[in-house]
From TrEMBL:
Pfam families, sorted: CRAL_TRIO
Keywords annotated in UniProt: Signal
Domain CRAL-TRIO: 38-214
Name of protein: CRAL-TRIO domain-containing protein
Length: 219
């Protein structure tokens, strides 16, 4: 607890300066996001997928963010970190592209749905300053794309995950306001998910159909 407290206090103080200094540097653009494939060690450890569509044909994206071990990538350094950044930029790009999949002139789809599974998130990530700095920086990119998010869900959020959410609040503010945050008791959140999302668009372990098949897996 003490540790996380110290980290969040420290972030609140230096983060505004950090953001303005990194935004300028973060102007690399890619032109191969349609075809590029991250190396397997990135894809297998930073899993996300298009699970299906909601009742209004909005794409539903699920990411197992609690298991995303960014710290390991920092420990590996250089090239791996570049790949991870690109992997995430590609996810955001695909999210954007997916809005048009079921969009028609009569009923345009302009927003999507995001579900982040925070299972597994722990102090190894939150307690590592450089990882948190990086998360903060990526959260800015996420926020830009999340303006086109109708509804968000974060599930399996433990108290360490709550700390992270508090740290990211200044960046994610408006999209967090459209996000329901649930703890680790699936009996609480499964009924709520099913109010918004069709069973056939959810894996069984999130309350979906036994024969669920994701629309597309990237990982
Ligand atoms: C997503 O689409 C919006 C609107 O077309 C655009 O402003 C934004 O740059 C796109 N973001 C990504 C990551 O492609
Ligand atoms: C909900 O969690 C319990 C306890 O961990 C587990 O036994 C059960 O299989 C879970 N339900 C679903 C639908 O995965």
């Amino acid at each position: 607890m003490l540790d996380t407290f110290r980290i969040s206090v420290c972030l609140y103080i230096f983060v505004p300066a950090f953001i303005s200094s990194t935004l300028a540097e973060d102007s690399i653009k890619y032109d191969d996001l349609d075809t590029w494939e991250a190396p397997p060690e990135i894809r297998n450890n930073f899993v996300y997928y298009l699970s299906g569509f909601d009742f209004e044909d909005r794409p539903i994206w699920i990411a197992e963010t609690g298991k995303w071990d960014a710290r390991k990538i920092f420990d590996a350094g250089g090239e791996q970190l570049k790949m991870l950044n690109k992997h995430i930029d590609q996810a955001l790009y695909r999210y954007n592209q997916s809005l048009s999949i079921r969009s028609t002139p009569e009923s345009p789809v302009t927003e999507g749905v995001v579900l982040l599974d925070m299972e597994g998130y722990d102090m190894r990530q939150l307690g590592h300053t450089r990882t948190i700095q990086w998360v903060f920086k990526k959260a800015h990119d996420v926020e830009v794309v999340a303006r086109r998010m109708a509804k968000g869900f974060m599930i399996n959020v433990n108290f360490i995950g709550e700390r992270l959410i508090n740290i990211l609040k200044p960046v994610l503010g408006p999209s967090l306001a459209r996000t329901d945050i649930y703890g680790t008791n699936n009996g609480t959140w499964i009924p709520k998910l099913l109010r918004h999302l069709p069973k056939e668009s959810l894996p069984a372990f999130y309350g979906g159909s036994a024969d669920f098949v994701p629309a597309a897996v990237y990982g």
